[in-house]
Amino acid sequence: MTQRGAIVALSYMVIAVLLVMFNKAALSSYKFPCANVLTVMQMILSTSVLFVLRKFDFIKFSDDSPNGKAAVKHFVPFRILRQISPLSIAYLFYMVVGMASIRGVNVPMFTTLRRTTVFFTMIMEFVLVGQRHSNPIIVSVAIIVLGALIAGSRDLSFKLEGYSVVLLSNLTTAIYLATIARLGKTTGLNSFGLMWCNGLICGPILILWILLSGELKMALNFESIHVLGFQVVTALSCMLAFCLNYTIFLNTTLNSALTQTMCGNLKDLGTVLFGWIWFGGLPFDWLNVLGQLLGFVGSGLYAYCKLKGK
After folding, report:
1. Which secondary structure element, helix H or strand E, spans residue 212, and what is its range?
2. Of 274, 235, 261, which is closest to residue 106 (Cα–Cα)?
3. Could you tell me the CA-to-CA distances from 112 to 102, 105, 157, 166, 178 in Å, in that order?
4. DSSP class of residue 156?
5. 3-state DSSP assignment of residue 287
6. Which parts pass through the membrane (predicted)?
């Protein structure tokens, strides 16, 4: 891992912790009932910022390879949008299911179950790009999954529906990250270009969905819509979502899909700590603590193996 890759990974972890806190506050503390509307708001802000930055040449949508320079002269042409559509569809499911998974489970258990994403990612990397991993990496993943199962064992029967959505979110995340690793290096697009394509393809689909489902009307009639605290939380959530998407793309393309997943595990220490302090929802239990510690040990072992090139 290069110094730049390490900085990107650390940036992702900090932003991810903050975003989970603000999303949880909007959806649970303020009881905002329209997760898809929040997703659309995040996507609109992201696409608008990208448009302005690209319009005034502050950023590029292509990398510095000959393929990238030839593919994208200003904005992304339709043929590349069509090529990138599988990634955008994976992103759509990742965003929608991920947002829904935050609502039904308390923050500590949400982060615990999310650690099993690494198992799904390893499988999807092998299926989509033929990626194989060394024995130390496989052992570290096994420790993480074991820790997640132990930590969630006390509470599983009471949160079956919420936990099922989180596990579905893990699967969609794994597919999304593996698709980034596969398409991100063949289209000539950089992280900004991939984010732009996702916004153009997924945005209209989600807007049509919230119009037909009545979520937009429900959001406009939300009782706390004029509350300053809710507005601040929502605005910060949208801004952090843009930053998070960028660091996800950058971390996955600079490092790997599995590294991105492991960063998600390592940042869980902060997420669990702040989630316990701000939201609560999970009584102290030694079995849960043991599972959490195993997850962090497995993540640390993976990070060590990755840095040493094992």
Report:
1. helix 191-213
2. 274
3. 12, 10, 15, 10, 21
4. G
5. helix
6. 6-22, 34-53, 80-100, 136-153, 160-181, 193-212, 224-248, 286-305
Q: How far apart are CA 253 and CA 230, in angstroms?
A: 34
Instruction: For residue 77, give the 3-state DSSP assignment.
Output: coil
Cα–Cα distance between 164 and 138 in angstroms, integer? 24
264 and 272 Cβ atoms separated by less than 8 Å = no
Residue length, the chain?
A: 310
Q: 15 in the Ramachandran plot: left (φ > 0), alpha (ψ -120 to 50) or beta? A: alpha
Amino acid in position 82? R
Chain mean position to CA 143: 22
Q: Which residue has the tokens 């990107």?
A: 8
* CA gap 197, 155 in Å, rounded: 40
Q: Decide if 26 contacts 230 (C-beta within 8 A).
A: yes
Tens-binned pLDDT, residue by residue, of the chain (310 aa): 677 888 888 888 888 888 888 887 888 778 888 888 988 998 899 899 989 988 888 888 876 655 545 455 567 778 888 888 888 888 888 878 877 776 667 666 676 677 777 788 788 777 776 777 788 888 888 888 888 778 766 655 456 777 788 888 888 888 887 787 777 667 778 778 888 888 889 889 999 999 998 999 999 999 989 999 999 999 999 999 889 888 887 887 777 766 776 676 667 666 666 655 555 555 556 777 787 778 778 877 876 776 666 6
Q: How many angstroms separate the Cα of 277 from the Cα of each of 204, 261, 271, 282?
A: 38, 25, 10, 11
268-282: burial string, b at 16+ Cβ within 10 Å, e else: bbbbbebbeeebeeb
Nearest to 23 by CA among 247, 206, 244, 262: 244
The separation between CA 13 and the C-alpha centre of its own chain, rounded to angstroms, equals 11
